[in-house]
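Protein modeling request. Please complete all fields; requests missing the sequence field cannot be processed.
Requester role: graduate student
Desired output: 3D structure, token encoding
Chains: 1
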Amino acid sequence: TITKANGQEDRDNKEKEKEKKKEEDESNDKVWVVGLNGTRRSGRRLVSRKGERDVRGQVYFPLPQPPRYQEQNLDVIIVKGVSTSQAQDGVIIDHKTHGILGYWASFYVQAGNRHAETFYGIPSYIIQETVDLARKRMEKGPEYSVVRALGVELEKVSLARAQELGVQPEFMKRAIDHARESRIWPPSLFAVRRRWGGSSAQKLLRDGDVLMCLEGEPVQSFRTAEKLVMDLNKKSVCATICRDSKQMDVHIGTLQLQSSGTDEEVIFFSGASLQKPPFAVSHQYGISNNEGVYVGNIQKGSPAERYRLAPTSRIVAVDGVKTPTLERFLECVQSKENGTSMRLKVVSLKGHERMITLKLDYLYWPTERICGANGEWKREVLTHY
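Delivered output (385 residues):
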């Protein structure tokens, strides 16, 4: 009888320990979103909402139109129980330690002609690293705050999908072990979703390649891939990928990111502002800087509007002569006299080609160049009436 009682007591103690551990695990995932709600007119008030941290998902945003900068390789904090459409910003606080986990931020989303904002958490370590880079730039100079990237947009893939793609079992085991240690479940690997135009990755990688290692280190998160490229500060890195069930190593050149979305040269031609394809276009559509002249904007009443030269399109040929760069485009148009009609071959972001005829009007719409250097912009008139 005593033995049975002791056995029952041991089982009860084990059950209590399991329940206690379960409660601790659940409390580790519980967070508070604390911030300001309301408007200036109606008044702002401090509010808090309790939720549960969810690290399983990845946020995909539709491509904006017109193209603008949009970060996709980002580990965000998703909080279950807190609506992502509520107009509230603030911080995410751990329920147990009361430490700040991240910033509850607004993400601008465009779907068709509709604009909206949705809220997710940006981890505090990302903000800290960004502040540290800005501080280095202010204290030591731009050369100490260089940001490099691999030139790809990644997406999470499940282990089942990775197995179908031919990923070897040891890498699958690494992903499972990492998921257990970091409490990120289910485990996942990362595949190439989109390649940046003009990058080394565009030539060497393919969409769907599974990125397993960088310089021998396994890629377990977006931050892992980013930090491996940033910390090494190399002009090229060795990437271990899986393609068509085969493992291979490729040396990929990294890209140094610029702080400006507009290049240092803009051409005003017949009421249209022309430039090299900006970063957002190369990032989201895989278009490099030598694939035509990008139409950024057109002015009302100009020949560009009259002859339907559409913004976000690219001029790839003038009168049958290819114009891959701004310099080549200027060579073709500067020799044209006022009143001349030109045939322009333009390509949309989706790759649709068409021909338009545009008549030059140098009296009201001369060709001008604006160049930027050392923070100053200078205007130069290239054609006269």
